[in-house]
């Protein structure tokens, strides 16, 4: 067996592979499948909310849909998609031959599908799927949960283990496998943001595991962690959940920041502005994410001093985030801009994520939050940062690196159509939700007061448009892989910089078996 | 695959350290976060939690110049079949004075049951200034089928109660803990 053997053939190639590119590909396809499944659940939600009154589904089933939509999008679609991207790109960006622990890499992917199979199977169980929202607050998720909650708990355990193994692998790779000369401050920003994200994951996924373990014990073993009758406290659940949950939102968005920091310089044909400040801003956001969790629970009855602390700490996050936004804009300033699909998605990200950040600032104001809490305003806010933030940047990443991965160029007109339909559909869906939220429409309710009817109908129409545009994306990606126009330049994009653009196109099965030279000075990616 | 792999030892070393971090964080939830939460609630009196044990009364002067209204609320948790109500809804007390009230409970079912009352004080800030020298909530309350009971509460409102608090509401929620006991598992 020589060094330059290709992939094995047949299904065993995928089952037993330890190749970072194969595993990255599997992660990306799996997460896209989950994205479509979670998106289908969202369509059920929007169809029910198309008109006031009960239309299509029972309230209990509606609650199962909101719960599974959230869980699958967060844990099944967004997180694994960025892990897939990390698998493909980090070794190529730092000049490593593969991930540091390839067999563990195989495991961290292959335990994911069973976890989500288990989660989805709860839909067919007696009592139905989990219906307590993706935040699974006790006692809804303990005393009042359907029996399927046990399957939910184990699914969370398994995907937590998968995430932790994936992160350990990423940290071990970045810390030990960089090519000579690739110092920390020369690493591409995508690698930096993922390194910090991986540390966040190792720190907080065990906390989530602890929370669901306590639920398991309360449900089956007679403990009372979250039951006041036995001396526990349901509010404790919220503290533990959000101690995980707030870093989790940065786990989702930091890799997105990394992607945008790679793509905007490429299409501005300028180095990233303020590389070092980007690194420090990322680290500051990661640190702050640990001390702001209770801003999700202002209404539980905290002392005023507590509310003030969490309010100011939360507002502080706007500073490093603002640094990033200004750096991206300054990167574009007087650049030789061109607007290919990846760049369009990045600019869409920049505009809409900033809007989502502003509504986040509004929500951080403790006295005002009592009005916004658990309304559609919150729904609008987090979809602006999760969808227009994480999903848009992920889409940009696929368009940006797909030609490098498969040696074929996607259809640019179809890509641009995908962007504009997504952008418009997304805004029709979520912009009106700000208004109904401020007017008091609560989230997670299958029916609503008549005055919200028009805006909800708009939202639903927008959601169908946005959902349909993803099928265009799927078609474009498949058409590219099967029959796209071939490209063979190492640098697919003339402005792209970085080691991944120095290998052949399409990227060979094994890259950097010999460490590359790292010529670029800091700041040029 | 030989020179595809660089020296793996440092990477394995890093990975093992990170596994330790993950395990430590898992343990952190149980051995730090949960006790810390309970201690903080106890010490700061936040969350309306009152002390779980009897307060040792220290003889102090009664502040005759001030009167505080104490309201009593009795709530039955979901599915709890007992009758449960305070003897009086409201009392006016002087800070420093010891006061006694009773709560009525009756078990209308055909089976013997055990209940646990969980107190909560509103406003939360008042919790640290509300001392119970005797309370039925310190223990579980067994009641035979069709039996009833008067359950006693002795309390002192601390003189240190902030001046802007004029009314304290003490609410008890009664939980059915019969099944927890029959499972033979101690409650925490």
Account of the protein in words:
The complex is a heterodimer of chains A (525) and B (188). Chain A has two domains: 135 residues, no CATH class; 280 residues, Cytochrome C Oxidase, Chain A (Up-down Bundle). In chain A, 66% of the residues lie in helices and 1% in strands. Chain A has 16 helices and two strands. In chain A, helix 12 packs parallel to helix 15. Chain A is globular and about 65 Å long. The mean pLDDT of chain A is 94. The N terminus and C terminus of chain B are likely disordered. The longest helix of chain B is centred in the first third of the chain and has 36 residues. Chain B is α+β, with helices and mostly antiparallel strands and 188 residues long. In chain B, the strands form two sheets. Chain B has a five-stranded mixed sheet. Chain B folds into two domains: 36 residues; 134 residues, Ctag/Cox11 (Ctag/Cox11 (Pfam 04442), Sandwich), CATH 2.60.370. The interface between A and B is large, with 50 and 47 residues.
Give me the secondary-structure topology.
The complex is a heterodimer of chains A (525) and B (188).
Chain A: H1 11-16, H2 20-48, H3 59-94, H4 102-110, H5 112-121, H6 149-176, H7 189-220, H8 234-268, H9 275-288, H10 304-316, H11 318-332, H12 341-364, H13 366-372, H14 376-406, E1 408-409, H15 412-438, H16 453-483, E2 485-486
Antiparallel strand pairs in A: 1-2
Helix pairs in contact in A: 2-3, 2-4, 2-16, 3-6, 3-8, 3-14, 4-6, 5-6, 6-7, 7-8, 7-9, 8-11, 8-12, 8-14, 9-11, 12-14, 12-15, 14-15, 15-16
Chain B: H1 9-44, E1 68-76, E2 83-86, E3 90-93, E4 98-106, E5 113-122, E6 130-135, E7 141-143, E8 148-157, E9 167-176, H2 178-182
